[in-house]
Design goal:
496 residues, alpha/beta, Rossmann fold, 3 domains, eight-stranded parallel sheet, seven-stranded parallel sheet, 18 helices, 15 strands
């Protein structure tokens, strides 16, 4: 029977279709023609699925191949000629090979659309329709997704035969073990805010990681070539501080990677246009604990499989709640605790309110609540500590001023930010109205409850805010050129 499976990211969807597939295929068939196809939206997710299939199919002689963009076509032609049982592919490359090799898909018994909503978001609808048309009517179709948009419902109605909807965690859109914190920031202070969170909230160590130091020591002790992080004996466990930072565009990723590297952090980066080999190297360094931070665009929100991840930081707030769900689904998996920190500018406020409604959680501003805060069940918004934030902002400003390349990257990222804000999906009109009320609340500019309740520091911060408000609102009765021209001139005005 055809199946539509819905579950949040990190709940074991891959195993849910791999195990039945192996049970169904059992062993390698001498008859020519693949019997199962798994379609993934990204190269990383396809690689992750391949790993799971190989792990779970160890006791069988099933042949599995990978067909993704960026790899050699000649090698893929050869792989297809080896009579595989299972094909794991991205739709674009699979459709390309289907046309080039005039593939007959009549032997397919089992087809899986993994992260199907993402397949449609990335514009693969035409390729998917063509692939579906070439499949035999008696195959079993499985469609797995974390969300179910309208386009996906229409596709399921057209391509699936009386599908059964299986929904897991219908009430829990994000992991119950995930704790979240939202920080209101000014746009021009976002880099400083990121560093403040890394340094003072996450306590991210700077310099090489312990595993990186160990690898260097091992290499120094022996001239013999040891297995590197991408060898089969690699210890694929990220560090206890492992953090993914999500940015809006590849320009932001490049800028943040260079900025954080100059500040001494061990950083990797990934974005869509990055060369396939470079992507593998960057992800592997993070997976094996040689770096602590991975800066990515949303292309890596799904598919980059990190076994243990401590934190997620939304440097640029997502424009849709489901993107937030997929981003934070990287952490707090398999019963482990995890944190997600989000930077929220004034323009992002309507999107935060959309997310709050989507998650059906209570919104708490600053320190307005006297009850105990539950970060796993509430949307808590507040500001960062002003003094350390200003130190971080000044540090960033100094670095950018002294480095021409970094300054150029920042300028490009600012332009990319404007383009991103202009083209992103609009928030709901109701949330836009609520955002004005929330933004004008006296609690909006209060320090986040994540920081210790230091009454003296809070009072000083309030006095500082009041003084700045008075200064910013001050209008002199006359300009410098008018001094002494009105009324009686005194000695001081004559000197001026």
């Amino acid at each position: 029977q055809d199946v539509v499976g819905m579950a949040r990211t990190g709940s074991g969807k891959t195993a849910a279709f791999v195990i039945p597939m192996i049970e169904k295929l059992k062993s390698h068939s001498a008859k020519v023609g693949a019997r199962a196809v798994i379609l993934s939206p990204s190269r990383e997710l396809a690689l992750q699925t391949l790993k799971v299939v190989k792990e779970m199919g160890k006791g069988t002689d099933l042949r599995t191949i990978l067909l993704v963009g960026g790899d050699s076509l000649e090698e893929q032609f050869s792989s297809m000629a080896s009579n595989p049982d299972i094909i794991i592919a991205t739709p674009g490359r699979f459709e390309h090979l289907k046309i080039e090799m005039n593939l007959d898909l009549s032997s397919i018994k089992y087809i899986v659309f993994d992260e199907a909503d993402r397949l449609f978001e990335m514009g693969f609808a035409a390729q998917l329709a063509e692939i579906m048309a070439a499949l035999p009517p008696n195959r079993q179709t499985l469609l797995f997704s974390a969300t179910l948009p309208r386009s996906l419902v229409e596709f399921a109605r057209a391509g699936l035969q009386e599908p059964k909807l299986i929904r897991l965690d219908a009430e829990t859109k994000v992991s119950p073990d995930l704790e979240t914190a939202y920080f209101s920031v000014n746009t021009q202070e976002k880099e400083g805010a990121l560093i403040h969170i890394l340094r003072d909230v996450i306590k991210m160590p700077s310099g090489p990681t312990e595993r990186s130091k160990q690898a260097k020591e091992d290499n120094a002790k022996s001239k013999k070539r040891k297995r590197g992080p991408d060898g089969p004996g690699a210890n694929e466990t990220p560090t206890e501080h492992s953090t993914i930072v999500f940015a809006a565009t590849k320009h932001h990723v490049e800028y943040l990677y260079n900025l954080l590297s100059q500040l001494g952090y061990a950083v990797s980066y990934v974005y869509g246009a990055l060369d396939q080999t470079a992507r593998k190297i960057q992800i592997q360094e993070f997976r094996s604990g040689l770096t602590n931070i991975l800066v990515v665009t949303d292309v890596a929100a799904r598919g980059v499989d990190i076994p243990i991840l401590a934190n997620v930081i939304n440097y640029d707030f997502p424009s849709q709640p489901k993107i937030f769900v997929h981003r934070v689904g990287r952490t707090a998996r398999a019963g482990r605790k995890g944190w997600a920190y989000s930077l929220v500018t004034q323009k992002d406020l309507p999107y935060l309110l959309d997310l709050q409604l989507f998650l059906s959680r209570k919104l708490i501003l600053g320190r307005e609540s006297t009850d105990e805060i539950n970060y796993a069940d509430q949307v808590v918004l507040g500001t960062l500590l002003r003094a350390p934030l200003e130190v971080c902002v000044e540090e960033v400003g100094k670095l950018v001023d002294e480095d021409v390349d970094l300054s150029g990257m920042r300028d490009v990222s600012v332009k990319a930010e404007k383009q991103y804000v202009r083209t992103r999906t609009s928030a709901s009109s109701e949330s836009a109205k609520r955002a004005k009320v929330v933004g004008s609340s006296p609690h909006y500019s209060e320090i986040h409850t994540l920081f210790e309740d230091d009454s003296d520091a809070r009072q000083m911060e309030l006095e500082r805010e009041k003084m700045l408000a008075r200064v910013s609102g001050f209008r002199p009765p006359e300009t410098i050129f008018e001094v002494g021209k009105r009324g009686t001139a005194n000695e001081a005005t004559e000197i001026m």
